[in-house]
Amino acid sequence: MNKRGLTLLSGILMLSMLSACGGNNNGNAGSNAAEPQSSAAATQTAGSGTQAAGDSGKVDTSQAVTLKMIFVGPKPVDYDTVFGEINKKLKEKINATVEGEFLDWSDWAQKYPLKLAANEDFDLIYAANWAGYNDQALKGGFLELTDDMLQKYAPQTWKAMPQVNWDQAKVNGKLYMVPQNRGETVEKLILYREDLRKKYNLPEINSPEAYANYLKTIAEKEKGVMPFTPETGDWKFHNLDRVLLKQQNEWNMLDFDLPVAFKLDDPTGKVFNVYETPEFKELVYYYKDLADHNAWSKSSLNSKLDHQQELKEGKTASITHNLGTLGSLMTDMREKNSPYELALADVTPDKKKSVAVTTQNGIAIHATSKNPERALMMIDLLQNDKELHDLIMNGISGTHYNPVGDDKYTNAEKNANFTGFSNWGFNSPLNRENASFSDEANALTDKWEGEVYHYQLETFVFDNSKVKTEVANVGNVMLRYGIPLEYGMMKDVDKGLAELQKQVKAAGIDAIIAEVQRQIDEFLAKSAK
């Protein structure tokens, strides 16, 4: 997702004995990920792409095409203006234009799989591990991308992308997305109203207990302000779980679609049912206490509120997300002279920090796309062509952002009119960093970069093809019985937890755990050779 890029990729690449500079990517020695070379496919002008007899290096772009792409997130206010400029460049380079469709955060989780199941007519779609990439790939929603296709239609990406990124994006040995080409942490933290903490003379928020104290105090004393507003979406575990369950206990919880985890520092990778742990039981009591003290709305389960907008308007005292998103929000509010003083809270400051696998963001091609070659060419350009990458990631220079050198920017007046949607699928070494990024966020970035914990199973990806029915059944149980418990909506926590454990077992969690463990054991055995 849209985060301040963190230069953590080299740590991952060490696991595969590859160079982080891109010098040995896919056997293409001498390529430089930070300086992608122009390609024949990407530089043809409209109408000049008629393929010569016997010239397999040329791509026929003589026929103009319109590519439809599905994004997640709200449609930007200045979509027409920015995509108009993007389409001018795409038309010139590959005789194509792109038309975007946007699935809002409040309902993307329901609509996204339906788009694929209904076999709607589109060419590209944002893809990510947290958006069910593996599952949709196995269901046949995405087109398989072969090495030959990538070399011919996405040559810049082929040269620039480290091999480990391609490997991490494979499902059953086959590739179904062009992943992002940039490392990032996935840890969550809290952005809160520092002015309210000072107003009530509360201690520093550096632990779950201190955060609970803050929320309860705001609920009691600050009328008209919701202490915490969660992010909307069909989440089976919410963002606070990522802080208070995953980070607090130093677990890897796969893709958060299953109550399955293992300890980061366990060399055997022993898998367990999260719902049966004392840590989970303690956490749901923590949530129940907060809910009873009105720390969040009673209607949170069905809320459609934009938590970032609620913070901007002073209607909530805290939200949680990743460092880049919260740092950018702080920057934006300060530049717009917000009356609210903000601060970041890491309530798990001494816990291990981990890094995202490459499938955190990417772009897939619809299995039924009529123009997969041109779609790949578009991805190639938007990830590697400096001018087009700046447009898709930042908008129009002088309107949405002000360039600072080649790799930084500051927000321009209409920055908010082109943000908040999944352009992150095109993340690459060409990403600009915000020159006005808050000092607090920069300090945390530097701290976390130096503390990233690399473990044996860091690049492990679960293939659920053998337990797809059980995964679907368990997911339904999580939504029906788990989420109400986690928002403190159950009067009897013990009874609710017992029912959740019973239902998830009946849905097939033991079979899933056995399959995950089998794959982990095989992964570790191969790694030891």
UniProtKB/TrEMBL annotation:
Signal peptide: 1-22
Coiled coil (residue ranges): none
Any one Pfam family match given in the protein's UniProt record, by short name: DUF3502
Keywords noted in UniProt: Signal
Protein's UniProt keywords contain Signal: yes
Region: Disordered, residue numbers: 29-57
Entry annotated with the keyword Signal: yes
SUPFAM superfamilies found in the cross-reference section: Periplasmic binding protein-like II
Domain of life: Bacteria
Compositionally biased residues, Low complexity: 29-54
Domain DUF3502: 458-525
Protein name: Sugar ABC transporter substrate-binding protein
Species, as recorded: Paenibacillus stellifer
Phylogenetic lineage: Bacteria, Bacillati, Bacillota, Bacilli, Bacillales
